[in-house]
Design a protein that fits this description.
Length: 365
């Protein structure tokens, strides 16, 4: 393991080249004992990288320190050659040579679903994410929820999984000696008891921007399916979707309202056939060909079953009067017209009400 860790620390050598070196030389130790002129002959190496390898005993010292850190903290290092390495991730050519983890979970047991999206989550996005996961884990008991421990959709997915006592994995963009963002430290600790925090980075690695891009491919490769909820047209979660498509994973997106910048990315994925549109966990389960747990009786007429107090009041009033014009609703709800109009748009989008000619609103069904 020390040689694999040391190999992963060499600048200019990524996972693909590292595995190529091992394939040519037989094992990771041979990489550090081979002569420079022989290393140069290996495709993709060249003089500069060969020079970076030869005589770098300090890397082995750093690898020993890493192993000592892992041992003291009861963390794990899993090599891509081991049976316990995630088999889904092993299918990806650029998967990490070594995966570090804090937690106790079998990476090869269960059905892994990633939930990713905007950091600037809306109430709508939060409701969708929470409801989708709640319904999903009821029907698929061996579901494992994966995300990136960031603000927004990520942490909502992790919290929802913990709430329903479902394993959840957070893939981070730094070493296990820190936690970013630090505000999620307590959540991460809970996840380690029913899931894991994983990374390809050694201790001392800062959560720099390029690391998040690399982190996204692990989220995609680790899973059977990726679900995008609320993403801007250039959101980082779109990179996860791209990686998932490259890995032949199933990609799904929750559609958003036309003109909403925080859902523009989801709508674009659907438009380009890079993601399938889903509105409920049943849509996801059917698309994956999974068999729901027959012992669970889930009533799921709509994904958006959780309403705010104001939304519930609007529905109550409309049901009482059958239908009302916008000015009548304003008088009865006592809500400011701007607030009421926003709520009506949300309820219409969620499928609870319909807008008739003359700004008349009526409950659906």
């Amino acid at each position: 393991m020390r040689y694999l860790i040391a190999l992963s620390m060499i600048k200019g050598i990524g996972p693909i080249l590292a595995k190529n070196l091992i394939a040519y030389l037989g094992n990771a130790e041979a990489v550090f004992t081979e002569k420079k002129q022989n290393l140069e002959k290996i495709p993709g190496i060249g003089t500069s990288i060969a020079q970076a390898i030869v005589g770098k005993t300090e890397l082995l010292t750093l690898a020993d320190k890493e192993l000592d850190f892992l041992d003291k903290n009861n963390f794990r290092a899993t090599a891509y050659t081991e049976k316990t390495y995630p088999y889904r991730l092993k299918e990806c050519a650029d998967a990490p040579v070594v995966l570090y983890s804090n937690g106790h979970i079998d990476f090869n047991k269960g059905r892994f679903i990633a939930f990713v999206g905007t950091r600037n989550i809306t109430d709508y996005g939060r409701s969708v994410c929470e409801t989708l996961i709640e319904d999903l884990v009821q029907q698929i008991p061996d579901a494992v929820i994966v995300s990136g421990l960031a603000y927004g959709i990520d942490i909502t997915a992790h919290k929802s999984a913990l709430k329903h006592q479902t394993p959840t994995i957070g893939v981070v963009a730094h070493g296990l000696d820190r936690l970013y963002p630090s505000a999620h430290t307590s959540i991460a600790a809970k996840m380690a008891t029913n899931g894991a925090i994983i990374t390809e980075y050694t201790t001392g690695t800062e959560p720099d921007k390029p690391n998040f891009v690399q982190r996204n491919r692990i989220i995609a490769g680790l899973c059977d399916a990726v679900v995008i909820i609320e993403s801007a047209i250039r959101g980082g979660s779109l990179l996860t979707a791209d990686a998932a498509n490259q890995y032949n994973r199933e990609v799904f997106a929750i559609p958003g309202r036309v003109g909403d910048s925080r859902s523009a990315g989801c709508n674009d994925l659907i438009r380009q056939n890079k993601a399938a549109l889903i509105e409920s966990s049943s849509d996801l389960i059917a698309a994956m060909g999974w068999q729901p747990d027959a012992s669970k009786h889930v009533t799921q007429p709509l994904l958006f079953s959780d309403l705010t107090d104001d939304e519930q009041e609007i529905i109550k009033i409309l049901r009482k009067h059958d239908s009302l014009q916008i000015n009548q609703l304003t008088n009865k709800t006592k809500l400011p017209i701007e607030r009421l109009f926003s709520l009506l748009i949300e309820l219409e989008f969620k499928g609870y009400i319909r807008c008739l000619p003359g700004s008349v609103y009526k409950v659906v069904g």
